[in-house]
Design brief:
The protein is of the alpha/beta class and 382 residues long. 28% of the residues lie in helices and 22% in strands. It has eleven helices and 19 strands. The strands form five sheets. A six-stranded antiparallel β-barrel has the order 10-13-16-15-14-17. Strands 5-6-7-8 form a four-stranded parallel beta sheet. A two-stranded parallel ribbon has the order 2-9. Helix 8 (182-202) links the parallel strand 7 and strand 8 (209-211). It is elongated, with a radius of gyration of 24 Å. The relative contact order is 0.14. The mean pLDDT is 95.
């Protein structure tokens, strides 16, 4: 969908479709609704590069959204300063002790992996607010980064529950291979469920959210029976980590740039740094104003990567540079004019270049393609 008169002054921009975002939220909500489970959307890393504040404004209005999750106190404070205060903000990972005062001041919901973290936060919270600070406990069922090992949590639980300035309001784990290893993921979920049952037996009065499922966990159809929250991230932007579920989602991102120059090059002429591409015949090329300085990966060089111009695929020639790329437009019946739009991710005419396709060409993952978008890329929401 073009944005008339809004992009002529831009060199590279991202169009973000909030209606598609709402559709994807509905998909996640429909999966969880049958289990009386709500959503904790993950919008860390500036909502995977697409603008956390604008994305959060849409998310916090949805009735299925109970919390919003980010990676750090700084990301949370940015949202609060922008007026995102309708839902609690959950911190997915540990923070340095020097940042604990931000957690307490802004009443963030941290993830705890140790009794030491809990005691430090309890000390700060007891001196600053009459109500307990809500915290979530992480159980390491196989991710290996953070969290209590299930067999160790029991020895710490009495002390954790007796800290007067903290309230354990969530218990979580993470599924690192839900898109790659179903057998291991089922084992993780079973281990998580077993741990929850054991905790309930030893602390029957504990009432807490329980959450494990990321986008792959939701789209992969893994058991939600014991969960009250789910943490979709990538799927909100219309990218499925499980390929055969892509049809359920609507991509939110279209990445565009302008044609800045059209040239006719003779046979035997090299293009871009390192002379990795030399024309075999007279070639008409277009220069586009995008490069790795905008987050368009240099690893796309020499990988049969395409852009869309006039609704047709045009291959990149030579290396991606910091600010520009060259593409072959010899096959286009009518050469584009400088200023014409080119699509790097998204649909133009009947052709589509997906984030997943681009990630495959760059030998990376869709998450990285999105989060690489730099501040030079203007974000437009519609």
């Amino acid at each position: 969908m073009p944005l008339p008169n809004a992009t002529t002054h831009l060199r590279t921009w991202a169009e973000i479709n909030l209606a598609a975002l709402e559709h994807n939220i509905q998909v996640a909500a429909a999966i969880t609704r049958a289990h009386d489970c709500r959503l904790c959307p993950v919008i860390k890393a500036d909502a995977y590069g697409l603008g956390a504040t604008s994305i959060a404004r849409t998310l916090q209005k949805h009735p299925a959204v109970a919390m919003i999750a980010v990676a750090s106190p700084a990301e949370a404070i940015e949202l609060i300063d922008a007026g995102i205060t309708n839902v609690p903000i959950h911190l997915l990972g540990p923070a340095p002790p020097e940042h604990y005062h931000h957690i307490v001041k802004h009443r963030l919901v941290p993830t705890l992996s140790s009794l030491e973290e809990a005691k430090h936060l309890n000390h700060l919270a007891s001196a600053s607010h009459p109500k307990p600070l809500h915290v979530h406990l992480k159980i390491d069922t196989g991710m290996g980064r953070i969290g209590f090992l299930p067999e160790h949590l029991h020895q710490f639980l009495p002390d954790l529950l007796n800290l007067p300035a903290l309230k354990v309001s969530g218990i979580a784990t993470h599924l690192p291979s839900a898109d790659e290893d179903p057998a291991f993921t089922h084992q993780q979920i079973t281990r998580f469920h077993d741990t929850l049952r054991s905790l309930h037996a030893s602390a029957p009065s504990l009432r807490a959210h329980r959450h494990a499922h990321n986008s792959a966990g939701l789209l992969g159809g893994y058991d939600l029976a014991h969960c009250t929250l789910a943490r979709p991230g990538l799927m909100l932007h219309g990218v499925s980590p499980i390929p055969d579920q892509q049809h359920r989602l609507q991509p939110t991102l279209t990445l565009k740039s302008h044609v800045t120059l059209v040239r006719n090059l003779p046979a035997g002429h090299s293009i871009s740094y390192g002379r990795t591409y030399v024309t075999q015949k007279p070639t008409r090329t277009a220069t586009l104003s995008i490069g790795y300085g905008d987050g368009y990966p240099r690893h796309l060089s020499g990988q049969n990567t395409h852009v869309l111009i006039a609704g047709q695929r045009c291959p990149i020639l030579g290396r991606v540079t910091m600010d520009q790329i060259s593409v072959d437009i010899s096959h286009l019946p009518h050469p584009p004019s400088p200023g014409e739009e080119a699509v790097l991710i998204g649909t133009q005419g009947s052709e589509t270049i997906s984030t997943t396709e681009l990630a495959g060409k760059a030998e990376t993952i869709p998450w990285e393609i999105l989060t690489r978008l730099s501040t030079r890329v203007t974000k437009l929401y519609f």
